[in-house]
Amino acid sequence: MAQRVALVTGGMGGLGEAICIKLAALGHKVVTTHSPGNTKAQEWLDSMTKLGFSFHAYPCDVASFDSAQACLKRVAGEVGAIDVLVNNAGITRDTTFRKMDKASWDAVIETNLDSVFNMTKNVIDGMAERGWGRVINISSVNGQKGAFGQTNYSAAKAGMHGFTKAAALEYSKKGVTVNTISPGYIGTKMVMAIPTEVLESKIIPQIPMGRLGKPEEVAGLVAYLSSDEAAFVTGANIAINGGQHMQ
Ligand code: CAA
Ligand code: NAP
Hints:
Elements: E1 5-8, H1 14-25, E2 29-34, H2 41-50, E3 56-59, H3 65-78, E4 84-87, H4 102-121, H5 124-130, E5 133-138, H6 141-145, H7 151-171, E6 176-183, H8 189-192, H9 196-203, H10 215-225, E7 237-240
Parallel strand pairs: 1-2, 1-4, 2-3, 4-5, 5-6, 6-7
Helix pairs in contact: 1-10, 3-4, 4-7
The chain binds acetoacetyl-coenzyme A and NADP nicotinamide-adenine-dinucleotide phosphate.
């Protein structure tokens, strides 16, 4: 079987890096995107090379359809057709709704939800034509249950799963699965940006396991959903949150 091409948006972030490493270890050719303004991209690539990984990296503003389209055209021409798309890039602009301005709303909806359209639109019909594909959307427990200070983020992440279910139906007979993973709080810089006092007093106590998740734990689930074994899983929203969804 030819080596599959997997593209991970935001693959240089906390979760993305673990996902890239896991998919590479499974034998995929791994492509990551980074923000066009990311000045540390080459440094990250060099550090991965030292660990024995040779990833392909492309600038892409996932919030812009034109940027996504141009990036995906380059990837198709230079690396190959994409078999596995992991829509992972995302941001937070946390603030209570009372204080939230339109710019914070727009930034989160465009980066976390419009990005799913921008990226998926440019690859999924190719997957369908080839009869095999995987789209994996990284949502959040906070899209399932809401979170104080995250009306924008919770709306975008819940919207992602609506997209998953509808697209899963449309592509179910084409060998393409579309699924959502909803992680709980994972120890990356996104979570480390939460004030320590809030993390310790309000968030950790809501997690039955009493700890943050590890990026590798989420990457293992991405690996499963990207495999042939997961062919019968589509339109699912898989929780991975230390039991927080039951709180
Ligand atoms: N539950 C209940 N009350 C809360 C609360 C919470 N989680 N967080 C804050 N409050 C309360 C405070 O106790 C305070 O109450 P009083 O006014 O009665 O004293 C009030 O809200 C503060 O309100 P403000 O409008 O002044 O808010 P602030 O400027 O202090 O900031 C906040 C509020 C931005 C929500 C801040 O608390 C925060 O950053 N919280 C963390 C939000 C969060 O969980 N983000 C997740 C980021 S990680 C991620 O998103 C990954 C993922 O998918 C899991
Ligand atoms: P992170 O370390 O902050 O990484 C986020 C990544 O998104 C970065 O690599 C960043 O790339 C990329 N990105 C942001 N805006 C972008 C844009 N406009 N165009 C292209 N790339 C952009 O966060 P993380 O914790 O790994 O989060 C990854 C995903 O998991 C997010 O969707 C997040 O919502 C979700 N999630 C995280 C947690 C958690 O607890 N950490 C829980 C549930 C869900 P640059 O650095 O190049 O800008």
